[in-house]
């Protein structure tokens, strides 16, 4: 056998060095979730200009919108497309429909558009109606068919996965004790992990330190949630030392996977972030914390060499921040409409450098945090300023139809009948509805018609029910 000359060997070494280098670089590019649940957002064309100007490395879509995929053609952005939950069963059913999906949503744009991830469904395992459970069992078959359709086209650089939420875990703390939920651990997780492992794909996780912290601010320190902590927490099971909550959450998934015999599946973060504003009863949703979280996150995730987590040191974690814009048509509490880096008019809510090049000390000082302590006192839910009066009657009817005797005090002759105006009746109904049903998850929102207030709206013997915190 010919001894290879040292020249090609050297070249080879250099090449592999270069490859390793560029792989590490590409994996540490920060991605952005381009959510579009708003009626006041810039056009897709403007949005992609904005995403490019922010120097994002990747963009994640919640669909495979053809206009957006076309506009992304020729850009250097790596793209993640998503198959809606309600198409999963159909795609799992036969290879023809999988091939059709890949044709319509990938081949028409690829490789000009750098599609790199196909995410099958969104948080599929967080829903559990009978129909949802049918989707659970079709999830991996659909992923396999999409992968096969790509392979049939000779496409190797698109990973297939599915973003899951932290609720796939039964317990999360300490990380070494984490296991997958029992209702998915037998039939859903084993084939999913097998697929991710054998296709060298990523376990995509939607992971927010905001939620465990805001649900339990007494027991979890805000600094841990914002990567500002210098307290070290040792996991008694593993002996690993943690300084931030994100690493704990990521490693709980790592440990759960390891218990199934998959120590090598890499994590990717499909969503993470911090709300820049929220309702009066929501702690810690402010610009100060949002900027602190996202800036520290970017610094960590772009570190070279990669930091990884205590259980997987040195392993890069591709990360998509949620979200590009504040999205005004998202339902639920106020935080839901305030995850954006940008206002709907495209201006930034706080300065942020997605490349990770900027030193944290080079940012301008932030406004002080306004609500890092829980609100204490009474709150009412009243008609918002500027609410569309045409929409009030149906919201009023809805509120009154919920709960027990919600609007009894509004009937003629009763104490809150006067003044007979749709605004004051709706304000009463919203307050009464919210006071009764908040503990069951009801929001003071009504599609933007309602807002929380600390000002007691009660009048002349009519007591508005309140929420007391
Ligand atoms: C595959 O599924 C599609 C959509 O459900 C259906 O129209 C088609 O007949 C199926 N093809 C085969 C071969 O079963
Ligand atoms: C996971 O993938 C690796 C590399 O392909 C392989 O060596 C290993 O056996 C797989 N693990 C399982 C549990 O299938
Ligand atoms: C906070 O931690 C304490 C001690 O570990 C525990 O007893 C308590 O239940 C926790 N509180 C909440 C709200 O989780
Ligand atoms: C964008 O919106 C913010 C907040 O509503 C406003 O203060 C700012 O002037 C707007 N900027 C532009 C360029 O429209
Ligand atoms: C309404 O009253 C019934 C019977 O007292 C009770 O079981 C139910 O939980 C109440 N519903 C609400 C929303 O308070």
TrEMBL record:
Name the UniProt record assigns to this protein: glucan endo-1,3-beta-D-glucosidase
Signal peptide: 1-24
Biological process according to GO: carbohydrate metabolic process
UniProt-listed SUPFAM superfamilies: (Trans)glycosidases
A Pfam family assignment: Glyco_hydro_17
Phylogenetic lineage: Eukaryota, Viridiplantae, Streptophyta, Embryophyta, Tracheophyta
Cross-referenced PROSITE patterns: GLYCOSYL_HYDROL_F17
UniProtKB keywords: Cell membrane, Disulfide bond, Glycoprotein, Glycosidase, GPI-anchor, Hydrolase, Lipoprotein, Membrane, Signal
EC number(s) recorded for this UniProt protein: 3.2.1.39
Keyword hit for NAD: no
Family to which this protein belongs: Belongs to the glycosyl hydrolase 17 family.
GO molecular function: glucan endo-1,3-beta-D-glucosidase activity
Keyword Signal: yes
Membrane topology (UniProt): Lipid-anchor; GPI-anchor
GO cellular component, one term: side of membrane
Major site of localization recorded for this protein: membrane
Domain X8: 379-464
Coiled-coil residue windows: none
Catalyzed reactions: Hydrolysis of (1->3)-beta-D-glucosidic linkages in (1->3)-beta-D-glucans
Protein origin, superkingdom: Eukaryota
Compartmental location: Cell membrane
Natural source organism: Rubroshorea leprosula
InterPro entries, per database record: GH (IPR017853), Glyco_hydro_17 (IPR000490), Glyco_hydro_17_plant (IPR044965), X8 (IPR012946)
């Amino acid at each position: 056998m010919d001894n290879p000359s040292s020249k090609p060997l050297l070249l080879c070494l250099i090449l592999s060095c270069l490859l390793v280098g560029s792989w590490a670089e590409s994996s540490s590019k920060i991605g952005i979730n381009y959510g579009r649940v708003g009626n006041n957002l810039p056009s897709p064309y403007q949005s992609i200009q904005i995403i490019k100007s922010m120097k994002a490395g990747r963009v994640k879509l919640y669909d495979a919108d053809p206009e957006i995929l076309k506009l992304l053609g020729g850009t250097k952005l790596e793209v993640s497309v998503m198959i809606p939950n309600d198409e999963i069963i159909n795609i799992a059913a036969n290879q023809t429909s999988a091939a059709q999906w890949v044709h319509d949503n990938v081949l028409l744009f690829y490789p000009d558009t750098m599609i790199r991830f196909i995410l099958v469904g969104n948080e599929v395992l967080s829903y559990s109606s009978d129909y949802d459970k049918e989707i659970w069992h079709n999830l991996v078959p659909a992923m396999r068919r999409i992968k096969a359709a790509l392979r049939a086209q000779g496409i190797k650089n698109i990973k297939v996965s599915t973003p899951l939420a932290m609720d796939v875990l039964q317990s999360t703390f300490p990380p070494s004790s984490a296991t997958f939920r029992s209702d998915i651990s037998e039939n859903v997780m084993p084939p999913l992990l097998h697929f991710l492992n054998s296709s060298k794909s990523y376990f995509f996780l939607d992971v927010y330190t905001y939620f465990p912290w805001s649900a339990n601010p007494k027991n979890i320190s805000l600094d841990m949630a914002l990567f500002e902590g210098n307290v070290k927490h040792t996991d008694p099971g593993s002996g690993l030392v943690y300084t931030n909550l994100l690493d704990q959450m990521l490693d709980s998934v790592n440990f759960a996977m390891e218990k199934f015999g998959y120590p090598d599946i890499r994590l990717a973060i499909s969503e993470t972030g911090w709300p820049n504003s929220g309702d009066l009863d929501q702690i810690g949703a402010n610009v100060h914390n949002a900027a602190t979280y996202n800036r520290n996150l970017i610094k960590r995730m772009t570190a070279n060499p990669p930091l990884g987590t205590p259980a997987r040191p040195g392993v890069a974690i591709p990360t998509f921040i949620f979200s590009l814009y504040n999205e005004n048509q998202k339902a639920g509490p106020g935080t839901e409409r305030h995850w954006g880096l940008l206002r709907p008019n495209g201006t930034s809510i706080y300065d942020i450098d997605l490349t990770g090049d900027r030193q944290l000390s080079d940012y301008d000082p932030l406004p002080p945090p306004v609500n890092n302590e829980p609100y204490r006192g009474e709150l009412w839910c009243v008609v918002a300023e500027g609410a569309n009066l045409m929409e009030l009657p149906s919201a009023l009817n809805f509120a009154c139809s919920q709960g027990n005797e919600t609007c009894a005090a509004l009937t003629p002759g009763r104490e809150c009948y006067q003044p007979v105006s749709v605004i004051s009746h709706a304000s009463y109904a919203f307050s009464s509805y919210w006071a009764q049903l908040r503990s069951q998850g009801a929001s003071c929102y009504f599609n933007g018609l309602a807002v929380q207030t600390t000002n007691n709206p009660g009048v002349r013997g009519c007591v508005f029910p309140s929420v007391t915190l």
